[in-house]
Amino acid sequence: MAKLFNPIQLGAYALSHRVVLAPMTRLRTIQPDDIPSPMMADFYGQRASQGGLEIVEAASVSATARSYLGAASIFHDGQMEGWKAITRAVHAKGGLVFLQLIHGGRQSHVEVTGGFEPVAPSVVPFDGIALTKDGFVPASPHRALGIEEIPGIIEEFRAAAQRAKDAGFDGVELHAANGYLVDQFIQDGTNRRTDAYGGPVENRVRFLRETLEALISVWGAERVGVRISPSGEWGGVSDSNPEATFKHVARVLDTYKIAYLHVIEPRVKGDDTLHEGHPPVAVKYLREHFSGPIIAAGGFDRESAHAIVESGDADLVAFGRHFSSNPDLPYRLQHALPLTPYVRAAFWGGSQAHYSDFRAYDASQATQNDATADEAETA
Ligand SMILES: Cc1cc2nc3c(=O)[nH]c(=O)nc-3n(C[C@H](O)[C@H](O)[C@H](O)COP(=O)(O)O)c2cc1C
Questions:
Q1: In a 10 Å sphere around its CB, with 0-12 CB exposed, 13-18 middle and 19+ buried, how is residue 301 labelled?
Q2: InterPro entries attached here (predicted)?
Q3: The domain containing residue 76 runs over which residues?
Q4: Which CATH number characterizes residue 335's domain?
């Protein structure tokens, strides 16, 4: 288990171990203004560890970038105190904390965008969902972005990155995964443009490059990461040649010398394991195209996290679901302690219950189960 608990340099930061908190939207902001709530500060503070990295759930860069009612956003002053409470809680325990920045693109609904039609690179039939006051509903019809609108969206990313800095984060992660706007530009199933942002992959990554450059203009490359999901199925995206496309993406990102590349394995779709037992593939074929640190995510447990870091295909491993129910996950993995099962019913909104009330390992707890089984889903 040694290497998973070895220090590593991640851009500007010296981490003391390689177990990362994956970004998880938990829909617990205070409405109507997406104010980060005190229970969110509790949640992130509980999961902080000395020299460990947390990536905070996707925060929309503007009102029109929103996808889910209750999800985080970072575009107005009223949100700043809530964000500062979160970064303080993590720093108090010696942890590092990046904020993931998102534009939902076509995965949205007029009810959460303030009445504006969701935008996308192109208009392509889409049967995805958004979350409104009526629950998960079909996404609203979207429209294609005019080329003259793109600089405005890039500026939203830049302004949000500046706000993240003002709130005390240590860096930002660009959400270029899971079929949201940046991913919609990258993949040719959703990008049918014929202008400088569409067509060959060199054009399809232009939006990625420009958003990334906006984040770098605020933070410097050594404090910016990018998350991708090659062959991921969330958000109805597809590409005619995902391996070639994402190798190109990795090569492009490599030229920026960013802090890390974060890769979701395609065996996972959003918050669910689609293909049980599939070995990691995405990280394997990207490794030779990206020279910086790679964070692997999606379906890892203690053994497979250890194996992928030992193999060198990835340098760190991000955990989502297991971290949701094990605030001291790095410690438990290091000491081979049993995991508390996660509670799927509490993933998308709710109270502190099954959110910030999970306890650190206590040897006297007799009811701990190993959470690798499916039963964990409904525990
Ligand atoms: C409730 C929930 C919310 C999620 N929200 C986000 C998010 O905001 N941004 C993101 O990139 N991934 C999100 N994900 C995906 C996770 O970051 C991670 O890739 C996924 O859970 C697979 O990792 P795991 O097998 O360790 O859980 C979410 C997953 C869950 C379970």
A1: middle
A2: Aldolase_TIM (IPR013785), OxRdtase_FMN_N (IPR001155), Oye-like (IPR045247)
A3: 3-378
A4: 3.20.20.70
The share of the chain scoring above pLDDT 70, in percent, equals 96
Ligand 1 near 181 CB (within 6 A): no
| Total number of domains constituting the chain | 1
The residue type of 79 is: Q
CB-CB contact of 344 with 375 (8 Å): no
Q: What is the DSSP string of 246-300?
A: HHHHHHHHHHHT-SEEEEE-TTEETTEESSTTPPP-HHHHHGGG--S-EEEESS-
Give the model confidence (pLDDT) of 210-250 as tens digits: 999 999 999 999 999 999 999 999 999 999 999 999 999 99
Q: Distance between CA atoms of 42 and 60, rounded to whole angstroms?
A: 21
Residue of the CA atom closest to atom 22 of ligand 1: 298
Choose the catalytic residue: 44, 68, 180, 342: 180
Q: What is the pTM of this model?
A: 0.96
DSSP letters, 291-322, are -S-EEEESS--HHHHHHHHHHTS-SEEEESHH
270 CA: nearest ligand 1 atom: 15
Q: 371 phi and psi, to 5 degrees? A: -95, 20
CB of 343 closer than 6 angstroms to any ligand 1 atom: no
Per-residue pLDDT of 74-115, as tens digits, reads: 999 999 999 999 999 999 999 999 999 999 999 999 999 999
State how far the Cα of 194 lies from the Cα of 185, in Å rounded to an integer.
12
Residue 283 · residue 275 · CB < 8 Å: no
Ligand 1, atom 11: nearest CA belongs to which residue? Answer: 23
Instruction: Supply 32's token pair.
Output: 């109507």
Cβ of residue 227 lying under 6 Å from some atom of ligand 1? yes
Cis peptide before 32 (omega within 30 of 0): yes
Radius of gyration of the chain (CA): 19
Ligand 1 center from residue 300 Cα (angstroms) = 12
